[in-house]
Amino acid sequence: DKSYATEHNIPICNIKNFSTEAVAEWAIMMMFNVARQIPVLIKDDFPLYFDKDYMKYRGIELHGKKAGIIGLGHIGTAIADRCAGLGMEVVYWSRSPKESQHESVELSDLLATADVIFPTMTANDEAKKLLSDEALTTMQSTATIIAVEHHLFNTDPVLKMIKEGKLYGFGFEPEPNNFKNYVGNVWAAPAYGWATDQTMRNCMVKWAENLVNATNGKFPNKVD
User: Fold this and answer.
1) How far apart are CA 3 and CA 9, in angstroms?
2) pLDDT bucket at 209, cuts 50 / 70 / 90
């Protein structure tokens, strides 16, 4: 309990940036799967009549498309760099100025023009106001939104747009669920983005560093 720790002057430390690469790769994986309509194929049990159904299941190529990163922190930057490596145009919006090779744009422009949108801000009340239901409806009907941060915006209008054919695709991490519970091109897997061997090692190393620092009276990762 944070209030108890504060009252008794007990430092609370966290572990930062231990899963950045893993989560960025997971986001790119979701983007590829949605681009090629893999969620639809999964729900249709992967029909084998490709010579008859290829028009129904045809996907989009990502090279040359515009990726919009909302929040250029550690994960946002890692996603942006991977998108650029795929030959995508990358733009971003961030609450504070960033030194980046990528172009900074207004949030309204990003939502209206990006082909693939990655909201990567920390979820808080301010972020939810920025990504309001009304703002989400300004996305192009051909756009895809890939969410790796939880509770950052209301997913209901996005799912409704997918259902009505007003959005190409959506990738997110709901509570344990089933692809077949969602209509259309929706990637809905559990939050496994962080779950890699390297992330586990990073977490243990950083946890050990916190303990060593604490024994020396240092708390560089202290939570305010």
Assistant:
1) 10
2) confident
Extract the tokens encoding 122.
């920390």
CA 121, 21, 24, 110 torsion: positive or negative? positive
Give residue-wise pLDDT tens across range 90-104. 999 998 878 888 999
Helix (H, G, I), strand (E, B), or coil: what is residue 169? strand
Going from the C-alpha of 124 to that of each of 23, 120, 128, 156, the distances in angstroms are 19, 12, 6, 18
DSSP-derived secondary structure for 182-218: S-SSEEE--S-TT-SHHHHHHHHHHHHHHHHHHHTT-
Task: Supply φ then ψ for residue 10, to 5 degrees.
Answer: -100, 115
Within 10 A of 10 (CB to CB), how many other CB atoms are there? 10
Task: Put residue 71 in one of left, alpha, beta given phi > 0 → left and psi -120 to 50 → alpha.
Answer: left
Which token pair is 158?
């996005």
- This prediction has a pTM of 0.85
Q: Which of 165, 158, 162, 86 is nearest to 119 (CA)?
A: 158
| Among 98, 57, 103, CA closest to 84 | 103
Q: Are 120 and 148 in contact (CB under 8 A)?
A: yes
E-assigned strand segments in the chain: 66-70, 89-93, 103-104, 116-119, 144-146, 169-172, 186-188
CA distances from 185 to 9, 39, 60 (A): 50, 6, 12
Half-sphere exposure of 120 (CA within 13 A, CB side): 26
